[in-house]
């Protein structure tokens, strides 16, 4: 079962994500990857060399805009459309971000749509080693019909 995995990292966490991708690259090649711009370019460069060395399948990464240029918002939209199955987002809790509002919005959307999300390597390790990664899985969504049908006077 192919999953649609989003990979995102703030600048101070890109090396951590690249290390994680390098460790898990063979598993990741079995899935569809979506990344914000800069992160996607770095992951693409890393995986191209791995694929060339191993004669594995072709790499397909959907690259969005850089996070501060709207990539976080694009990713949030993909989540709302059911186009992302899980999110690995190594964000930097120690560094202020110029697009902090977008980051919070992305995290909120991932929680709202009950998308499995890892914000650190330990959780990413648990997610990628889960049997659910290779099985059909439909997240349970809260019923928001009351919210949608509300009337404001």
Descriptive account of the structure:
This protein is α/β, with parallel strands linked by helices and 153 residues long. It has a single domain (4-148), classed as Rossmann fold. The protein has 6 helices and 5 strands. It has a 5-stranded parallel beta sheet with strand order 3-2-1-4-5. Helix 1 (14-28) links the parallel strand 1 and strand 2. It is globular and about 65 Å long. The model has no long low-confidence stretch (mean pLDDT 91).
Please give a handful of descriptors for the protein shown.
single chain, 153 residues, alpha/beta, Rossmann fold, five-stranded parallel beta sheet, 6 helices
> Stretches where pLDDT falls below 50 for ≥5 residues?
none
Helix/strand/pairing category: alpha/beta
Helix content: 40-55%
Provide a count of the helices.
6
CATH top-level class: Alpha Beta
Mean pLDDT: 91
Oligomer: single chain
CATH superfamily, by name, is: Methylglyoxal synthase-like domain
With strands numbered from the N-terminus, the spatial order across the biggest sheet is: 3-2-1-4-5
Helix and strand sequence: EHEHEHEHEHH
Number of domains: 1
Percentage of β-strand residues? 5-15%
Radius of gyration: 16 Å
Largest sheet: 5 strands, parallel
Number of strands: 5
How would the global form be characterised? globular
Give the N-to-C terminal Cα separation: 47 Å
**What is the CATH topology classification name?**
Rossmann fold
């Amino acid at each position: 079962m192919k999953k649609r995995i989003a990979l995102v990292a703030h600048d101070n966490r890109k090396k951590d994500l690249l290390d994680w991708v390098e460790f898990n690259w063979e598993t990741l090649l079995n899935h569809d990857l979506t990344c914000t711009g800069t992160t996607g370019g770095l992951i693409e460069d890393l995986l191209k060399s791995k694929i060339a060395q191993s004669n594995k399948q072709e790499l397909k990464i959907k690259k969005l805009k850089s996070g501060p240029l709207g990539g976080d918002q694009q990713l949030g939209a993909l989540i709302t459309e059911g186009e992302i199955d899980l999110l690995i987002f190594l964000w930097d809790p120690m560094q202020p971000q110029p697009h902090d509002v977008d980051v919070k919005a992305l995290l909120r959307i991932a929680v709202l749509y009950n998308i499995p999300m890892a914000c650190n390597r330990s959780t990413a390790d648990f997610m990628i080693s889960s049997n659910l990664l290779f099985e059909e899985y439909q997240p349970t969504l809260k019923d928001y019909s009351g919210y949608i049908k509300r009337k404001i006077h």
